[in-house]
Amino acid sequence: MKKNYLLILSIFLFQTVYTQNALLIPDTINDTNINLALDYGTYEFFTGKVTNTMGANGNILGPTLILQQGDSINISVANQLSDTTTIHWHGMHVSAENDGGPHTVIPPATVWKPAFTVRDKAALYWYHPHLHEKTDLHVSKGIAGLIIVRDNEEAQLDLPRTYGVDDIPLVIQTKAFDADYQILAHSNSDSVVMVNATINPYVDLPAQVVRLRILNGSSQRVFNLGLSNNETFLQIASDGGLFSGPFETNRLQIAPGERAEILLNLNSRENDTVYLMSYASELPNGIYGATYPGTNTGMVLNAYNPNPMNGADFNILQINVKVSTTNPVTSIPTSLVSVNPIDESLANTTRTLTFSPETMGLDQLNGKFLINDASFDMDVINYTIPFENIEIWELTNRSAIAHPFHIHDVQFYILSRNGNVPPVNEQGRKDVVLVKAQETVRFITKFETFADDKVPYMYHCHMLPHEDAGMMGQFVVSSNPLSVESYNLNKPEVKIITTQNKGEIKIIAEEKISDIRIYNLQGKSVFPNIEYDINTALVKNLSPGISIVMLSINNQLVAKKVIIY
Ligand code: C2O
Ligand code: CU
Ligand code: CU
């Protein structure tokens, strides 16, 4: 172990000191018909050393898909691997069967053909494999690609958008290598940082306003981005959309799965060199990437330390400023797009999700980690969400390490972090949020457009070893939840009582209630206000008449008829 580490460290230092490599810019596919072929390959991360990889349409990573909102696209994903996998369109609002989650497998030598309309707002999304227990392996070996969505609103703005010239895709990843230069999955010793699969990269950028589209595609590591001279830059977008205006900062924390777009003002900076860095020394303990990954420094994460990147500042990308282009963007718009968060008062349901380690004690950082005391089960639907429901998800992290929580199908708006309004750059559209140790994050979202009783969507921690170990759950969005199979009518251990207040009922169960849905006799969802309190719940604002109450208790559905006064 120690010997491996020294070897890896010397690789790291050698590369840091001696070689600079031109940043690879992934090819693009700018078409409504998209063909992806997943296959094995080899790649020379280290001069003269052959590393076995996996890629889409090449040896490593995959082409950047450039999509236009409103377009109908047809994709063909050919699996030429000897392993089953899936491909998920992270952040995009597509139907469950097109989403590419762990149930939508692509066996070897088969082709998967999703087709959908691009409904998303202009932003940076990405695609990656999502096979249960093998997501980290397939992503770490190299399969991941960017998706740039354009829309009319963004097209109105004077922003850089010449791909690879003033609009630069950056897939930032750290990987762990063994002594034979082979990629290790499920490893906590990721000591090599790369951008677009390039170690020690440099890029020549024109002396004008330049846009960087950044994905943290790492399995686990959080970066604290900044520039080497500490100058400020402007964040203009989060995961799923542009902001209402640029947000000026000199630091940007980005967790696995998260994206950000930033503008650098390089006007009259020709011949300057500046580094994009991670100021990981400023990350508080309790985040993967800090000196200690847990808040309790006595907790040990296997093989995490020593590692030259933990809690240290390091370079990510060398930027050499060169001559400007012929039609440069030279100024930064002061306002961008309209952002329409959902008002908290519109929520029909609040769900509480608690993250905890399976075992307590100083070993707990090694997982597994549970959500509401459960590990992922392919056969259990954790929530049945009524179509068009507006929900608040309240995420509480009762573990000692931060988890980047991600949900499929939707973009959400963060309402609060520990009761406080989030910083401005977390008020836009998001699909990943880093929930710090002992923190509670609340977000609001709407489950619209797609309903499917059979194929679920996922929610999970985007630290891939955590996800693979079961820190994941699934939900279906149903427009006809009464047809969802296997519920027990009039299960005895649930009591429903009408309270003194008009239109109000109280539900008392013997076990934790994880979901309540109410329907009228026609089977149509009604959306009352529901306050959950573990095994009891108060349902308010029901209309008088007969209602059907469906409860999910301990993963079993229970249905009861009640008369509302
Ligand atoms: Cu980026 Cu469920 O994943
Ligand atoms: Cu996703
Ligand atoms: Cu996690």
Give a description of the structure:
By secondary structure, this protein is mainly beta. It has a domain at 482-565: Immunoglobulin-like (Sandwich). The chain is 6% helix and 43% strand. The protein contains four helices and 43 strands. Strand 19 (233-238) and strand 20 form a beta hairpin. The N and C termini lie far apart (69 Å). The structure holds CU-O-CU linkage (C2O) and copper (II) ion (2 copies). CU-O-CU linkage binds at residues 88, 90, 128, 130, 257, 406, 408, 458, 460, 462.
Describe the structure using short key phrases.
Immunoglobulin-like; binds copper (II) ion; 565 residues; single chain; 43 strands; mainly beta; binds CU-O-CU linkage
Low-confidence stretches: 13-17, 484-492
Backbone structural class = mainly beta
Say what the CATH topology of the domain at 482-565 is: Immunoglobulin-like
Q: What amount of the residues lies in strands?
A: 35-45%
**Radius of gyration computed on alpha carbons:** 24 Å
What gross morphology would you assign?
globular
Ligand identities:
CU-O-CU linkage, copper (II) ion
**Average of per-residue pLDDT values:** 93
- Please report the number of helical segments: 4
- Terminal CA distance: 69 Å
Please bin the fraction of helical residues: under 10%
Please give the largest β-sheet.
8 strands, mixed
Number of DSSP strands?
Answer: 43
CATH class of the domain at 482-565: Mainly Beta
CATH architecture of the domain at 482-565: Sandwich
